[in-house]
Amino acid sequence: MKFTRMLTTKLTSFWLMSLAAIAFVFLLSAMMSFVQLTYKFQQQKVSELESLLIEHYQTQPDWELESWLPPMLLAYNAVEFRLTMKSEVLFAYQGNVQTQNAMVYTHLLDPKSGLNMTLTLPQPFEHYSVSWYELLILGVGLLAVIALVRFGHVWFSQQLDGIEELAQRSRLILQGKHEQALATPGNGKPRLINRALTKLLEELQDAHKERGRFDKFIRSNTFLDAQTRIGNRLFLNNRLDALSHDQGMVAHGVIYLLEMDDLDLLQQAKGESAVKELLHATVNSINSILQTLPNSIFARRSHNQFAIVVPHVSLIEADQLASKLLKVCLSQPLPDDVENQDNFYHLGCAYFTAGDNVNQLLDEADMALRAAQLQGNSNWFMYDKGAIDEEFAKGSVRWRSFLENALVQRRFYPFSQPVMDSDGVEHHKEIFTRARDNQGALVRATLFIPMANKCGLMPQVERQMIERVLGLLAQEQHKNQVYSVNLSLDTLMSRAFTQWLKTTLLEYRHLTPQLIFEVSEDIVIQHQDKLKPKLDMIRKMGARLCVDHVGQQVVGTYYIRECHFDMIKLHRSIVRHIHLRPENQLFIRSLIGGLYRTEVQVCAEGIEVFEEWQTLQILGVGMAQGMYFSEPIEVQ
Questions:
Q1: Among 115, 324, 491, 523, which residue has the least CB neighbours within 10 Å?
Q2: Averaged pLDDT, 335-352
């Protein structure tokens, strides 16, 4: 912990310096006091000798100094002693002590007679030696000081560990990693601050979830039918616009119009609760069938009419699906007193191919519905508009053969479309996959991708495309380019592909910052728990994550934070004619507001006219792609 080590070192240094200063002052004071007392003790002995001499001089004229003075001088370790009266020497003593720095005391004992004493003594500490007992006391003192410093260092470190944990949590918060900061509360001290941070992070998380629920509420009230909770007419129009280009469908499929005759009569006879119960049962049964059909659309056009759009199905599969839908509708129990129970459900079907007009398609489905109603009993009718393009009639066996040969011969090619920012600068390029048949003609992705999913070959296709992109990035002319690659559900759920991708990203770690992996919103919502570890692995390898088709489904946006996406792409159904649709503008404003204070970038796909891009920029969308900027171009 760098912060702890730095602060602990400073505080410990201050602790040691303070302790050393106190010890130094204490020892200096003790030493000075001891020296001073020693000198005073020597001076006191000299004064006592002086007093004895004066007393003997005054009481005993004959002195008799030889009898008592030499032993006393010997006890004093005197170097030399002289007692004189004026110039006459009365007594002299020469000791055996040798010294270089002697202390000479000269005192006038009697001013009248001129009695003077000169005493030479050695320095008080000259013959002093330190004993083992004194050394032991000094060593114990030093050990006590070291132990105290060590204890202070450990105590400071333990106390500052909590401060470091608070600093780490604060650093995570400043970096925007709120979930990680909340997941590691630790034992930060002061504990009051740590608990306050945890409470604020929990409230912030609840606020984010509430904002996601509010966004979902806005989208629900804008695009969902209040009674059945499926898409409304506006939702249907948006999705059909997304499936078309210049009013022409971009793929093949089928549209069904389901009408419940005499629903108004049932409401008058049995009330609102009976109608609501019947609608919920019917809608749930149809939803259970559509769950196995990717990108299907289910919406309520009017009080008693529903629309179902299923792309990428053959004509035979459309007939089978119509029979299945009618069968589940007829299985719903009707009240006994309802008249014409056998003539309650009617289904009109219209099969479409690429290029068919949207409005004409709805008219054909409506005519098929009227034809089914004219037949009397509950039934379905398929509008017949001639032969279907035999390209769509390829069976699974033929498609598998075509796809396997294309994989072996590496006939899947990358096409790129630029993503532009608000300044008109290219941010990155999205990679689209195209295949070539044996004659060299391009096969549309809308044709082979559904078949590749059915045949389980999508992981191999996307693996080959990633290999091509990495090969492009290794070239000199593409060294600064950033590419985004789409990943399907089957690919992400494949253990073999995941292991290969991990190994490949490790091998090309220097190129991973130039890769963006895109995942569709619907598969993230449905399989978030299973996909999150795989998405985390990709992000930890250095690549970025993007979720596309945002807005296609009416769901909350909490998954964007939980899965740590770097970018989101708005679905073309939200972007199409955005300048004319205030309800779509409201959704985008709400979405961008929910991503406030995050680093998630918002991109719009499917831009076709300047007005759309201008409106999106005003709403706060920073990037866009579409035919307005460029068509997909093959990457060489």
A1: 324
A2: 79
Q: What confidence tier does 485 reach under pLDDT thresholds 50, 70, 90?
A: very high
- How many whole angstroms separate alpha carbon 451 and alpha carbon 448? 5
Neighbours of 268 (CB within 10 A): 10
Measured in residues, the chain has a length of 636
Q: Is-contact 78 103, C-beta < 8 A? A: no
For residue 301 the two structure tokens come to: 């056009």
The residues facing 65 across adjacent strands are none
**Buried/exposed code over 46-59 (b: 16+ C-beta within 10 A; e: otherwise):** beebbeebeebbee
Terminal C-alpha separation, the chain: 50
Instruction: Give this prediction's pTM.
Output: 0.57
Burial zone of 410 (CB within 10 Å; 0-12 exposed, 13-18 middle, 19+ buried): exposed
Residue 398, CB-side half-sphere exposure with 13 Å CA sphere = 8
Residue 371: C-alpha distances to residues 307, 349, 374, 464 (Å): 16, 10, 5, 48
Tokens representing 416? 């790129």
pLDDT, tens digit (0-9, with 9 covering 90-100), for 487-503: 999 999 999 999 999 99
The phi, psi pair for 246, rounded to 5°, reads: 55, 45
H/E segment holding residue 364:
helix 358-374
Q: Please report the beta strands in 59-164, taking only residues with DSSP state E, as ranges in sequence order.
A: 80-85, 88-94, 102-110, 115-122
DSSP-derived pairing of the beta strands 515-520 and 483-487 = parallel
Residue 388: C-alpha distances to residues 248, 315, 350, 364, 394 (Å):
16, 8, 12, 15, 11
| Whether the Cβ atoms of residue 432 and residue 412 lie closer than 8 Å to each other | no
Strand duo 426-436 + 412-421: pairing:
antiparallel
Which pLDDT band holds residue 150 (cuts at 50, 70, 90)? confident
C-alpha–C-alpha distance, residues 627 and 337, integer Å:
57
Nearest to 317 by CA among 252, 268, 240, 377: 252
Choose between 393 and 146: higher pLDDT: 146
Residue 568's DSSP bridge partners are 547, 602
Q: Distance between alpha carbon 553 and the CA centroid of its chain, in Å? A: 25
The CA-atom distances, in angstroms, between 486 and each of 483, 517, 576, 630 are: 10, 6, 22, 19
299 near 241, Cβ under 8 Å? no
Q: What is the pLDDT of residues 239-283, one digit of tens each?
A: 888 787 777 787 888 999 998 877 777 777 777 788 888 888 899
